[in-house]
Design brief:
The chain is of the alpha/beta class and 478 residues long. 32% of the residues lie in helices and 26% in strands. The chain has helices at residues 3-8, 25-32, 90-93, 168-172, 178-211, 224-248, 257-270, 281-288, 302-311, 331-343, 358-363, 394-398, 430-443, and strands at residues 36-43, 46-51, 55-61, 74-80, 83-89, 107-114, 117-123, 125-132, 152-158, 161-166, 319-325, 348-355, 382-384, 390-392, 400-404, 416-421, 444-452, 464-469, 472-477. The strands form four sheets. Strands 15-12-11-16-17-19-18 form a seven-stranded mixed β-sheet, with helices on both faces. A five-stranded mixed β-sheet has the order 8-1-2-10-9. The chain has a five-stranded mixed β-sheet with strand order 3-6-7-5-4. The longest helix is centred in the middle third of the chain and has 34 residues, at 178-211.
Length: 478
């Protein structure tokens, strides 16, 4: 049964029944041009909608299984015919008042699938499927809505009702808005065209000047090509920086410039005979492939865990407070918590793990580990679920608070013993890098430590000193 048929049928789900009036000629003509369908629902009495392509099914459910240390809008998990999925309350997410309900009361759920991740969202009331023309969807206006405009893809009127169309892709994934991406590409292309035109004119001017010199002039031995070689390298380097920003969301600064310059020299050799410019996402990915820290988004090797262990300073505090911004899928946070538990066995460990990927931080508390990765050094921190899957024990889980948060915004955190932020700063623009580093310095205790990505450095900041262990470097206040 399709979503449309469910929403217009009279069954036992208690969902709103939609009456279907007789079609008029005008109705049939309107249907001929419908090219967009959306599932409509209400939140606090206002009409909202979601692209039907994201909606897997609708359901009513209650008594969700509570998961500790999750975000306020994650009400728990639910067994959907054998698949355990997180349940998010959109009213809490958008700071909308939630009416009091009994714990076992049934909630209206929209089961969504975004980027192969399935989850449920709670709404007040599910209405119907509405078909409209894409051309009739208008850009959102801040005065029309109570929620952050960046989560809205448009507003559309149908049958004298105004619907706010939520941008599910932006809310629940990292995917950049297509028009924003296209605009960046257009700007990059314009920049390349302008600089190419300027360079061509400069070469012609230089060649013309050289032809007027006498043949026996010492300057004749220095050809225009030789003169322009450093300038050409400088121009190509600038194009690479711009390409990394546009296609890799990577900002070159004092933080990583040493690695970028070294990689640029390698890159020129690899691209011999072809353009060194970063022209697409694949180029950016290839250029940056050796930048990312070891064991990213996977269970750490014993060797890497040992290096982190040795890098951590002595600390006799009864509680070790850790800030782990950019935690991604949570694997890093769990491994770090295990190393901390081993390094400070008498202390209470508290890890604030943050990321802007809503699905990642929502799913992280329920992470399971493949059997092949659950052995070795990490096995003593693992346990089995009722279904036989490997997961981290309760002590490790209780030590981590996964949060949906952007580190560029205000952080209401206590003073921090350890900041663990691998490769995060390089994905922020230069101004944001400075702002976040300032926040790091403000929140770090006098004996605190910062660990960044393996190819990131803050040695240029006079307030920090560094010490290394293998390929890893830690920073502490002077």
């Amino acid at each position: 049964m399709t979503i449309e048929s469910i929403l217009i049928s009279d069954d036992n789900t208690n969902l709103t029944t939609v009456s279907v009036a007789a079609e008029t000629d005008q109705d049939r003509k309107a249907q001929d041009v419908i090219d967009f369908k959306m599932v409509t629902f209400s939140l606090s009495g206002k009409d909202y909608a979601i692209d039907i392509m994201y909606v897997k099914e609708i359901a009513k459910a209650g008594m969700f299984t509570y998961v500790p240390n999750t975000l306020p809008f994650v009400v728990g998990v639910y067994n959907l015919r054998g698949e355990i999925i997180p349940i998010l309350d959109m009213r809490v997410f958008f700071n909308i008042d939630v009416p009091e309900q009994k714990p076992d009361a049934l909630r209206n759920l929209l089961i969504l699938t975004v980027e192969e991740q399935t989850f449920g969202i709670i709404v007040d009331k599910i209405d119907k499927v509405v078909g409209v023309q894409k051309a009739s969807i208008q850009p959102p206006h801040p005065l029309f809505v109570d929620i952050n405009i960046k989560y809205i893809s448009g507003v559309v009127e149908s049958n004298k009702r105004l619907y706010i169309l939520l941008d599910i892709s932006r809310i629940f994934s990292r995917t950049k808005d297509e028009e924003e991406y296209k605009m960046e590409v257009r700007q990059a292309n314009i920049t390349r065209q302008v600089e190419a035109s300027y360079n061509e004119a400069r070469i012609k001017k230089s060649d013309a000047a050289n032809t007027t010199k006498k043949a026996d002039s010492p300057a004749v031995a220095e050809t225009s090509a030789t003169k322009l070689a450093p300038a050409q390298d400088d121009k190509d380097y600038k194009f690479v920086i711009e390409g990394l920003k546009n296609y890799g969301k990577f900002s070159v600064s004092e933080l990583n410039e040493g690695w970028v310059k070294h990689r640029f020299e390698e890159w020129k050799g690899e691209r011999s005979g072809t353009s060194v410019q970063i022209q697409n996402e694949n180029d950016a990915k290839e250029f940056l492939k050796s930048f990312w820290s070891e064991n990213s988004e996977k269970v750490w090797s014993k060797e890497y865990a040992d290096e982190i262990y040795k890098l951590l300073p002595d600390n006799s505090a009864k509680q070790i407070t850790v800030w782990n911004p950019g935690c991604s899928n949570g694997t890093e946070s769990y491994c770090l918590a295990c190393v901390l538990a081993k390094r400070y066995p008498e202390a209470k460990i508290r890890v604030y793990a943050q990321d802007t990927d809503l699905l990642s931080v929502s799913n992280a508390p329920m992470m399971t580990v493949p059997a092949a990765e659950a052995s070795g050094w990490i096995s003593s921190y693992m346990t089995k679920t009722a279904s036989g899957e490997n997961t981290f024990n309760q002590q490790i889980k209780d030590s981590i608070m996964f949060e949906y948060h952007d580190c560029q915004h205000t952080n209401a955190l206590p003073m921090i013993d350890l900041i663990f932020a691998r490769d995060l700063l390089s994905l922020l623009d230069k101004d944001s890098q400075k702002s976040v580093l300032s926040d790091f310095e403000e929140k770090l205790k006098g004996n605190g430590t910062i660990i960044l990505g393996e190819n990131e450095s803050i040695s240029h900041l006079k307030d920090f000193m560094e010490h290394s262990e293998g390929a890893l470097t830690a920073y502490s206040k002077q």
